[in-house]
# Entry
Amino acid sequence: MPNPWGIPKDIEDAVLKRDHHCVYCGSEFSTERAKKKSWEHIVNDIRITSLDNIALCCVGCNASKGSKDLVTWFNSNNAKKRGITSETIADVVKSALNLKNSPIVK
Ligand SMILES: [Zn+2]
# Structure
């Protein structure tokens, strides 16, 4: 899997160890086109390459999110159609959405 983003190797390794499922929909990665893993910037700023912004998500979620803002996408019908809820997202995404210590949104 190429890493075209200049993500530091130690971050890359840590993320590969941490994210075994899509951080958004929770799918297990596979070789199937839409379930392949891809590098994701949770907040769409390629300058942020810290562990709390770099994650692995499936190609399907990556394509659906595109360049949309995380909150906008999370609350969109596209995300709902993919079955993405506060139940399926990984902790790292919850933190980014500030959901971690708050009651479940909708
Ligand atoms: Zn996904």
About this structure: The chain has five helices and two strands. The first helix runs from residue 9 to 18. The beta strands are 37-41, 54-58. The CA atoms of residues 71 and 97 lie 7 Å apart.
